[in-house]
Amino acid sequence: MQQKKLSERYNRFRFDAGCLALNFVATVRHRGSHLRDLLISPEALNKWFLQSGLSSAQVQIFPKDLKNAVKLREAIHDTVYALIASIKPEESDISLINRFAKYTIPVPQLSTDRCNIELDTPFTPMSLLALIARDAIEHIGNPDRQRMKKCENDTCRMLFIDISPANRRRWCAMSICGNRAKVALHRKKLSAGQTELF
Ligand SMILES: [Zn+2]
Questions:
Q1: What spacing in Å lies between the alpha carbon of 65 and ligand 1's midpoint?
Q2: Which of 33, 52, 111, 185 sits in a 20 to 30 Å window from 153, CA-based?
């Protein structure tokens, strides 16, 4: 039962990375240990588009779109990861993000009858990926990228933006990896205390 609950939790998308692009990167859970890719099918990608709020209706996704999505996700991950580690990112990754960002996105238009917002064309998987690429560019190219961090839990390694005023956040979420670290520290202290007793 406990195992089932745990597996359900790890199969859930996370939307707490601080921006659209890093939420997309977080569709791979536990990059530091038992890596789990949640974008395993076109249906899963559609679900992510819907849950992230990027699209309000299903879009038709072909296997090649899924391949493109994974390519973009990994290029964003590797670029941010390199910057956090103070390593020069791969030019091929940067070019790929730039290429995706250039893809045309639907233009909002006012309807002539009621002045409602209507899109000139419907969203396609590529235009949704373009929005993710543009978000990545906005955050990576901003001086605030100093706030991009990697969860200090080495089995997790989720990338996130630290929006705390003190900029001292160490874990992807206090309720997940922060608590785990606290419990581990407590156990270590306990066992050290016990060793001293004998
Ligand atoms: Zn974490």
A1: 28
A2: 52
The answer to whether position 193 is within a domain reads: no
Q: What is the CATH number of the domain that holds 140?
A: 1.10.3300.10
pLDDT tens-digit readout, 43-100? 999 999 999 999 988 999 999 999 999 999 999 999 999 999 999 999 999 999 999 9
The residue range of the domain holding 47 is 2-167
Q: Give distance in angstroms: CA of 139 to centre of ligand 1.
A: 20
Q: What is the DSSP string of the chain?
A: -HHHHHHHHHTS----SSSHHHHHHTTEE-TTSS-EES--SHHHHHHHHHHHTS-SS-----HHHHHHHHHHHHHHHHHHHHHHTT-PPPHHHHHHHHHHHTS--PPEEE-TTT--EEESS---HHHHHHHHHHHHHHHHSSGGGGGEEE-S-TTT--EEE--STT----SS-IIIIIHHHHHHHHHHHHHHHHHHH-
Does residue 158 sit within a domain? yes
Domain count within the chain: 1
Please give the share of the chain, as a percent, with pLDDT higher than 70. 91
Assigned token pair, 194: 């016990």
195 in a structural domain = no
Asked if residue 179 is part of any domain, the answer here is: no
d(CA 32, ligand 1 centre) in Å: 10
